[in-house]
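=== RUN LOG ===
request id: a7f3
mode: sequence -> structure
chains: 1
length: 232
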Amino acid sequence: MLPPLIIAHRGASAVAPENTIAAFEAAITAGADGIEFDVRLSRDNLPVIIHDDTLYRTHGIRRRVADMTLNELIQVGVPSLAQLFDLFRSNELLLCLEMKCEPGQQATMAEACARSIDEYQLRNRMIVECFDLSALKILNEIDPALKTAALFQSPASPFMIDRAIGSGASVLALHYRCVNARMIQQARSAGLKIVVWTVDDPTWVERARSNDIEALITNDPAALLAARDTSV
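=== RESULT ===
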């Protein structure tokens, strides 16, 4: 794979509804190196693929994800984590799973994700991300072999690196507005790889190469792949 890796944000969400099987299939067709997706727990504590805590924005339904069972969510078009993993059995793409935890749910979420990853034997292809670093720490205690990424979107600060390392993360996943030369150098000195999100401007490809950024997460993988593959 050429650097930087191009990861499809919630699937190829520029051309298909986010976090849907159609978006993930579009990412595969585009040739993305991997996908990023969001996981929440259903009422019966089973992992499903959706970003928001309600279904209103994406499905037009005024209900909370946590109030619906797995079967109810599947019936209205929310994929289960098992459905996504089944889709990716036939390829070797990278999987970036973002845990979206309700208050007090960190341990339950970490256990559910670790169990599914182990069941499908996807540990070597997986990066688990979270803004809640306590959830990452629990996950690392459950399965120290899992690669994890600490997510940040606030202004760059050296405390980000300390907090990421404290959670057990090996990757720093930064909003593109957080990225600057000093932060990149400090992260690399600390042994952390850098992933940048969410980037739709193809000029980021060359910037990523020149700064040793591991991966770019984008809504439009086809556009960034075209920029990467024509600038070699």
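=== NOTES ===
The CA atoms of residues 29 and 222 lie 9 Å apart.
The longest strand covers residues 34-41.
=== END ===
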